[in-house]
From TrEMBL:
Subunit structure: Homotetramer.
HAMAP family the UniProt entry points to: SSB
Keywords from the named record: DNA-binding
Organism this protein belongs to: Leptospira brenneri
Upper classification of the organism: Bacteria, Pseudomonadati, Spirochaetota, Spirochaetia, Leptospirales
Name of the coding gene: ssb
Keyword DNA-binding: yes
UniProt protein name: Single-stranded DNA-binding protein
């Protein structure tokens, strides 16, 4: 039986999505979503905090993200968590958790075309 690692993020892009071409000719968009939330500090008092999540969107989903999303765009991302592991050049074990998007909802309002009546 497979385990579940599903996540839903609601936040804003920190920069324009970056388009990458990977082996096999597949397209990939990579972007970071900032999620604002409230956290408790060491004294137990609430404070505003922000977390940053790196998101990968593949193929057509990624192409749409590159075309329609920009820095500051509000999005809701649904997908799976993925941990990448590697050894650094100095031999230390490293890891990074990313979100592989299955759905990206574009929540920012579309700007009206100034030529429209």
């Amino acid at each position: 039986m497979k385990n579940l690692s599903y996540i839903i993020l609601d936040g804003n892009l920190t920069a324009d999505p970056e388009e990458r071409n990977v082996a096999g000719g597949k397209s990939l968009a990579v972007f970071t979503v900032a999620v604002n939330h409230t956290a408790n500090n060491q004294e137990g008092k609430e404070k505003d905090d922000v977390s940053y999540f790196e998101v990968e969107a593949w193929e057509k989903l990624g192409e749409n993200c590159v075309e329609y999303l920009k820095k500051g765009s509000k999005v809701t991302v649904m997908g799976n968590l993925k941990q990448n592991r590697w050894k650094s050049p100095d031999g230390e074990n490293r890891s990074k958790i990313k979100v592989t998007a299955s759905t990206v909802r574009f929540d920012s309002a579309r700007k009206k075309d100034s030529k429209a009546a």
